[in-house]
Amino acid sequence: xxxxxxxxxxxxxxxxxxxxxxxxxxxxxxxxxxxxxxxxxxxxxxxxxxxxxxxxxxxxxxxxxxxxxxxxxxxxxxxxxxxxxxxxxxxxxxxxxxxxxxxxxxxxxxxxxxxxxxxxxxxxxxxxxxxxxxxxxxxxxxxxxxxxxxxxxxxxxxxxxxxxxxxxxxxxxxxxxxxxxxxxxxxxxxxxxxxxxxxxxxxxxxxxxxxxxxxxxxxxxxxxxxxxxxxxxxxxxxxxxxxxxxxxxxxxxxxxxxxxxxxxxxxxxxxxxxxxxxxxxxxxxxxxxxxxxxxxxxxxxxxxxxxxxx
Length: 310
Ligand SMILES: *Cc1c(COP(=O)(O)O)cnc(C)c1O
Description:
Blueprint: H1 2-7, E1 16-19, E2 30-35, H2 45-55, E3 63-68, H3 73-85, E4 89-94, H4 103-110, E5 114-118, H5 120-123, H6 129-138, E6 142-145, H7 155-163, E7 171-176, H8 180-191, E8 197-202, H9 209-217, E9 233-236, H10 249-262, H11 271-283, E10 292-297
Parallel strand pairs: 2-10, 3-4, 3-6, 4-5, 7-8, 7-10, 8-9
Antiparallel strand pairs: 1-2
Helix pairs in contact: 2-7, 3-4, 7-8, 8-9
This protein binds pyridoxal-5'-phosphate (PLP).
Pyridoxal-5'-phosphate binds at residues 44, 46-47, 73-74, 148, 150, 175-182, 270, 298-300.
């Protein structure tokens, strides 16, 4: 296990640092940031956390197949892992980037990933059992990893974020898309019986749907809450800014100004969108006074290199 971390040059534990933004009501809280964006120069933080135990199986998979969009941090991280670990990798990409490759696609190609473009209709089948069966025939012996890497076996790697923490927090805040990261944080909090509330910021329109994804990924033995006096996790749905990867000018300005002011890189799809939401919640007195809040920086800067505008 640690062997694979060494092979891939992963630096954990990631640091926890104090943030002191000049936001409305920020003086009432203690804000920290766990810098999972720093665990590797190429791979996005939470994507490695989710892949760790999927890749560290006793028998190396003959090949790997996975899914994602043209700027996917997951495909990017997995492509890098597969190159270093010498596992043939096929990326099934939503849409056709042949004539207009993104920076992410260019990196996949440089890593010798077999990039296959799927039209939107076919991509929608990605978790349908018949289609997955078909992929098993097409790619014999393949480990097929779901979009975003959010598979039940991803959870153990994410819980390590919680076991690395150096102090108690009242809240852990993180962006939510395919749910694996939030499910792992909740599982970690339950395993360690912490009185920490896990707050997910939805980066896409998914009220109800995202809660279902997260609930399904929490392992059965951790499926009951530590305490019944207060809800221990929740997803905030007011700050998706129009949908996945939508980035109004106000959000882009926030990312740029806040990156400079706090000396933390931010992109508008995940980390910047979630931190923007946190700023609004502080202004609304959402958190109890004096609360210690940990913002998990999940990485993702690579995806912002040639992202579409708006
Ligand atoms: C994928 C991703 C997320 C979302 O995590 P999920 O486990 O899919 O909910 C958050 N931040 C970054 C940078 C990501 O790449």
